[in-house]
Each structure stands twice: as structure tokens, then as C-alpha cells.
Amino acid sequence: MIQTRYISKSYDQKVLDDVSLSIEKGKTVSLIGPSGCGKSTFLRIIMGLIQPDSGEIQIDGKVMASKNALALRRKMGYVIQSGGLFPHLTARENLTLVTHYLGWDKAKENERIQELSELTNMNPSMLNRKPENLSGGQAQRISLMRALMLDPPILLMDEPLGSIDPLVRYELQNDLRSIFRELNKTVLLVTHDLGEAAFLGDEIALMKAGEIIQTGSIKEIIEHPANEFVKQFVQAQRSPLEEY
Ligand SMILES: Nc1ncnc2c1ncn2[C@@H]1O[C@H](COP(=O)(O)OP(=O)(O)OP(=O)(O)O)[C@@H](O)[C@H]1O
């Protein structure tokens, strides 16, 4: 479970303003909002990569503090839009970077990679390639496998499908949804796309200028928008069928 209470962060200006959000174990929340509203900063704060100015984060009931930040980070897999794979390492080396450090033997690593290749529909023959020789979709499957290597209960995903073409994106959305459900992960996923947010999320949290304006199901957000901004945000999603 993830729980944040009154998280605030400023740089030159306020980026997050008293952000409180709860994600129950096994549920997915899609975080959506305009560019620059603070979504990535919020994820990085939950991941323990950035210190908030104030507020509290609880991961599975434990309050995050400097002494347990590393242990709590191990409970979270993190996937970013660009994949974040190390370019000089092969896909397999990217996957085993942390397990190697933790002293896993080769057989255990191979078994886990085999399991995750099946789960993510990754062709194992790609694992000896460097990231530059993988397509965007393949690289994101590797990033997802890397995030899942230690079987963390939580996944934080920052626009994981942002730079993927529509057909592969559609396929990956289906795969992600079944992976989240099959593995019962607690997921916070950032996206710009309301359709994707609704498809993948049990709930949607809509953010504007560092504040969460509304949290709820897609039905609640469409039928009972909290304010004019939410209404406009929903209306601003263009369907290709509009022009048909
Ligand atoms: N290290 C930093 N120093 C100064 N300002 C920062 C820093 N990191 C983020 N910001 C600012 O904080 C605001 C929120 O950035 P953030 O990346 O969290 O937004 P976002 O909602 O994820 O945007 P996008 O959807 O475009 O990725 C932006 O105005 C950004 O310029």
C-alpha cells in the first residue's frame, strides 16, 4: 500500500502542494494532468529519490525516513518513459545489475529472467542486444522486466508508454493490465492519455499545478467533474471517431 500525506515541494516555485493520495494493495491509480503539473516529481518523492519539503510517505504502513529509504525503495519497481536502460550494457546485463550486486547465482537469475520473459512476452533472443538495437516497445518490456526482477509489491511507472507507437502501445496496455492483475501489484502510473488512465487504473487521480483536484473512477470523473478544469480536461481528449 502507498499512502502520501500533505506532500509539498518547492524549487523556484511551488511544484507540489499538500498532495495526499492512498493506493490500496493490489490496486492501480493512474495519475494524469497537464505537462509540468508535478507528476514526475511526486513519483520521485515516493521512490525516495527526492526529499519533500514537508509531508509523509508510508509504504506498507512504514513511514519513509532516511534510515529505511533504501529498504523501502527495494519494495518499488520504477519504470520511466525513456526506459532508463544503461546503454553500454546488454538487456540481460541491465536485468541482472542489481541481482548481481545482491549475490544471486546464475541459475536463479536465469530462472527469474525466463519467468519474466514469459510474463512480458519478451523474446529471449533479444536479451543479448544493447538498448540501441531494441525497438521502443522491446526496450520498455526490458525496463518492466528490470523493475520486476526483485518482485517488488509496488510499481511506479512514469509514462512508460509515452514514446511508443499506437499499435505497440495498444498491445503493451493489454499486457500491462494483465500483469498488474496477475501479480496483484500496487501501481501508480503516470500517463497523459485519459483512455489509457481509465483502461489501466482502478482509479484516476487528476492533478493540476501541484494539487490533486479529483480522484475517482472514470465514470465519476466524467459524470461528476469536481470543477471546470476537470470538465475541460475530459473534453480535451479527442477521439479519432469525431471526424468520421
Ligand atoms: N530539479 C528541479 N529544479 C527546478 N525545477 C524543477 C526541478 N524538477 C522539476 N522542476 C519543475 O517542477 C515542475 C513539475 O515538473 P514535473 O517533471 O514533476 O512535471 P510533470 O507533471 O511530470 O511534467 P511532464 O508531464 O511534462 O513530464 C516543472 O515546472 C519543472 O520545471
TrEMBL record:
GO terms for molecular function: ATP binding. The keyword Transport applies. The keyword Transport applies. Residues 2-234 form the ABC transporter domain. InterPro entries: AAA+_ATPase, ABC_transporter-like_ATP-bd, P-loop_NTPase. Keywords: ATP-binding, Nucleotide-binding, Transport. Belongs to the ABC transporter superfamily. This is ABC transporter ATP-binding protein.
